[in-house]
Design a protein that fits this description.
Chain lengths: ~130, ~130
DNA sequence: AACCGAATACGATACAATTCGTAATATAGT
DNA sequence: ACTATATTACGAATTGTATCGTATTCGGTT
């Protein structure tokens, strides 16, 4: 067996495409490529290939019923964000969430953001 | 030109070694390897090679005055943590720090951690 | 001065990521 | 039915990571 599933960490290029899929919802290679093209100079077949690899890794689901396959993210944006954060916390912050928050906030963080975080903390049970 | 510098994101293996260097301070390959060996089964030359590559990338500084070179992290743990977080916030959280914090905290987060975060927020100017 | 052991340097392998060119194929319009 | 075109499939080139074996080199000990 080689790839079938579990928790695969998307690469940078894959994360870029996932962001597009989360935004657009299910989309064809062409649609994804059109969006990618706005900010990057990436060929159509490159996007296709990455989506195919993501499919092998089960990072995306593919609907092959039409000529143009329709791809969609296999895991929600929230699920993926959570695993990425947890991974970083364990690998770079010695498991400390508070340390991560400490580093995440700085002068460039807007008052609005900070307010949102305060609200979030207030709404906690603990 | 090939590598000389700027902000290089360490790979997983490199981050493992950086964590050791931040803990121990300047250390030889052997010292680093001894620590790595406790948890992983990695050869001495593998550690050496990675440190050499990190040196090329300027992720570590090397003191060659003695027979056994002494390596140390080029950037502080804090600096590195900050860039890793900032990178993740921009690539996976649409630039929203509050969303990141939202995902970082969950049931598994201890009361102590949450308290620390509250303190941190209180101590802010904003 | 020669030798031994520890350390670095070098190079090779395997694998994955990224990129794209070309081939094959299927649908839609004529 | 045929052809043009869009789309997928395949595979190759390049680069970087991770790993280690072997060669080389340097210092201290005899």
């Amino acid at each position: 067996m080689t790839h079938e599933n579990s928790t695969v960490k998307p690469t940078e290029a894959e994360l870029t495409l996932l962001n597009i899929l989360w935004n657009m919802g299910p989309a064809t290679v062409r649609q994804v490529h059109d969006v990618v093209s706005v900010s990057q100079n990436t060929g159509y077949t490159t996007v296709l290939k990455i989506l195919q690899i993501m499919h092998e890794k089960s990072l995306v689901i593919r609907d092959e019923s039409n000529r143009a396959h329709v791809y969609s993210a296999a895991k929600s944006e929230t699920q993926t964000q959570t695993s990425l954060i947890k991974d970083l916390i364990s690998k770079a912050f010695g498991g400390s969430t508070s340390k991560l928050v400490m580093r995440a906030i700085d002068d460039s963080t807007s008052a609005q953001e900070i307010d949102d975080i305060r609200q979030l903390l207030n709404s906690l049970e603990k």
